[in-house]
């Protein structure tokens, strides 16, 4: 089975499991996530490979991390994730990318990411649920962090935190790549 097939099967199993555990109908989850009932049916039947944005919306609506939705192993309380099991979830033709390094439920989703943004590239993000917090540490270049329409330059060696329940974007207006580590904490709300 290919990596994509494995992730599609895991997503199908985990969306259905968490939807059932949370007591949501297909219609209820579709409304909370802002995706169609038909899309959820296709996901739960492993008949589609949804966009990252769709997976994020479903995870937010269920109150679980992307890692939990894509997890194909049930493991011990301590989980070591080797680099080859990290999941690249976004990339651009300029060489930018984001990689989900690890995640857990604490009690809502808690995710750790590695990002690389090529010069001139950017990645916008829709608002997350109220109470969502992002922590960023830039290790190379200067990140252009835009939150609610305001730009905040974050140079290498600096960190930033913000409430992510408003539109935000990560950009690189410089001449060298930007590299950063980001943690995202999403509270679970029924």
Outline the structure in words.
With 190 residues, the chain is α+β, with helices and mostly antiparallel strands. Helices cover 27% and strands 34% of the residues. The chain is built from 5 helices and 10 strands. It has helices at residues 3-22, 26-33, 37-44, 52-62, 66-70, and strands at 87-91, 97-105, 109-117, 122-125, 133-140, 142-147, 150-155, 159-163, 168-171, 178-185. The strands form 2 sheets. It has a 6-stranded antiparallel β-sheet with strand order 1-2-3-10-5-8. The chain has a 4-stranded antiparallel β-sheet with strand order 4-9-6-7, with no helix packed on it. The longest helix has 20 residues, at 3-22. The radius of gyration is 17 Å and the shape is globular.
> Given the helix and strand composition, which structural class is it?
alpha+beta
Neighbour order of strands in the largest sheet: 1-2-3-10-5-8
Helix percent band:
25-40%
Radius of gyration: 17 Å
End-to-end separation: 35 Å
Low-confidence stretches: none
Strand content bin: 25-35%
CA-based shape: globular
Element order: H for helix, E for strand: HHHHHEEEEEEEEEE
**Number of helical segments with 4 or more residues:** 5
The average pLDDT is 87
User: What profile does the largest beta sheet have?
Assistant: 6 strands, antiparallel
